[in-house]
UniProtKB/TrEMBL annotation:
Transmembrane segments: none annotated. This is Integrase core domain protein. Pfam families: HTH_21, HTH_28, rve, rve_2. Gene3D superfamilies: Ribonuclease H-like superfamily/Ribonuclease H. GO terms for biological process: DNA integration. Involved in the transposition of the insertion sequence. PROSITE patterns: INTEGRASE (PS50994). Residues 284-448 form the Integrase catalytic domain.
Length: 451
């Protein structure tokens, strides 16, 4: 640390005529260049950037020594500058003499003719016209933008907004002066005028996108809406995904997914030997009823809670069966499993994969699996990616049905009806990119697997 006396000595030396940051450090041996710059800027005598200043005598002496053959590094060290500066001084001195080393402070002022009386009047008129133009630009900028818009600086306007400003004032000041005032090229101006005259060519598409966004409960993203536009049999629209995404962004059509509350867990400790993980995070199935996944999720409603337990087929994501209960008990999971095995055909024995929840380790669950030839598989303890297919289904379900909705005053039976309607839509009409933009039911019909 340096004392105040050390700092004062260094700063006073810097403000001595002809001294620079490097010269001060070379003479005193302290501090660093950054520290001295900071001290100088804190001094009341500081009026601008710490710009290195060299006297005419210093530059002339350095140039002559360099021309005589002394190493540039040695000359620069003595002058307190860089070798590059010495080289530039040497070049100017050799080509222009001492006049080449003069700056604005010591260069001779050229004699200027005295302006005639009429010149002063014309200059004043020109300045007044410039001020009138600047005032007009600012006035029209306020008109083009909202009064409380922070971009009241004309340089912050878009090209289209600048074009509107120019159109408003070009009759008074002329096109060339207006374009120069707002910083707009002539070609850009005429391009934007044509675009303004043509109007919004996506007006119809914007209305269609907004309608589909509301139809999807404000839960569909741009990919789904883009595909829905193409699949509309009555009036299909072929447009790129980028256009749909831009329209949704400009229209603030962003699905609102609230922050998820702390999740309920069905894990009750190791209450028995767990079966092996036969899936190993490979949730691909070549046919229906080969691989099922299941899990339990909680819904926190207005004054009560309820739990959903589904079976999802990994072939196409179809919800095979589901139960909703006011209590996450064994009966909820067992009824769901019995409804699922009722859909099996002879010879079908799927793998039923779950996490390590207590529902899947109780005696009745195990008995149902053994009776119907289901092959049990379990994730590792506390490892949600091992059951990613079920977790992903819950994420889509809650994003599209639950999050961002007002559930005040909605009772259990009403919620059950809404959930049933959504799961029917999920199986029959909700299209998926992974299924060539078909729903699970439509996909199975296209393969001849369903009537």
């Amino acid at each position: 640390m340096f004392s105040m006396e050390d700092r004062r000595r260094a700063v006073d030396l810097y403000f001595t005529e002809g001294m620079t940051i490097r010269k001060v450090i070379a003479e005193l041996g302290y501090p660093s260049e950054g520290a001295l710059v900071k001290w100088v800027r804190e001094d009341p005598r500081y009026t601008g950037a710490c710009r290195r200043s060299y006297t005419l005598e210093c530059k002339t002496n350095a140039a002559r020594r360099a021309l005589e053959g002394e190493p540039l590094a040695r000359v620069a060290r003595d002058a307190g500058c860089t070798p590059t500066s010495v080289y530039q001084w040497m070049r100017r001195y050799r080509s222009e003499g001492i006049l080449g080393l003069m700056d604005r402070r010591n260069a001779p002022m050229p004699a200027e003719p005295m302006p005639a009386a009429g010149d002063d009047v014309e200059e004043l008129r020109r300045q007044v016209e410039v001020l009138r133009l600047e005032n007009a630009v600012m006035r029209e900028t306020i008109d083009v933008l909202k009064a409380d818009d922070p971009r009241l600086d004309p340089s912050m306007l878009t090209n289209r907004e600048r074009t509107r400003v120019v159109d408003a004032i070009r009759g008074e000041f002329g096109l060339a002066a207006c374009l120069k005032a707002v910083g707009l090229k002539r070609s850009t101006y005429y391009y934007e005028r044509g675009a303004i005259a043509a109007g919004d060519r996506y007006a119809v598409l914007r209305a269609r996108v907004a309608g589909l966004f509301e139809q999807g409960g404000r839960a569909w993203g741009y990919r789904t809406i883009h595909r829905m536009l193409r699949l509309d049999e009555s009036d299909p629209i072929v447009v790129s995904e980028k256009v749909v995404r831009r329209i949704m962004r400009e229209g603030a059509m962003r699905p609102v997914y609230l922050k998820r509350p702390k999740r309920w867990s069905s894990y009750a400790g190791e209450i028995g030997e767990a079966p092996a993980n036969l899936v190993e995070r490979d949730f691909h199935a070549d046919a229906p009823n080969m691989l099922w996944v299941t899990d339990v999720t909680q819904f926190t409603m207005d004054g009560y809670k309820c739990w959903l337990s589904p079976v999802v087929d990994c072939f196409d994501g179809m919800v095979v069966s589901w139960t909703l209960s006011r209590s996450p008990n064994a009966d909820m999971a067992n009824r769901m499993l019995l409804d699922a095995v009722a859909t099996l055909r002879d010879g079908e024995h799927p793998i039923i994969h779950s996490d390590r929840g207590c529902h899947y380790r109780w005696d009745e669950w195990i008995r149902i699996c053994e009776e119907h030839g289901l092959i049990r598989s379990m994730s590792a303890k506390g490892c949600s990616p091992d059951n990613a297919a079920a977790e992903g289904f819950f994420g889509r379900l809650k994003n599209e049905l639950f999050y961002g909705r007002d559930w005040r005053g909605v009772g259990y039976e009403e919620f059950r009806e809404r959930l049933a309607a959504y799961l029917t839509h999920y199986n029959e009409t909700r299209i998926k990119k992974s299924l060539d933009w078909m729903s699970p039911v439509q996909y199975r019909r296209s393969l001849g697997l369903a009537a």
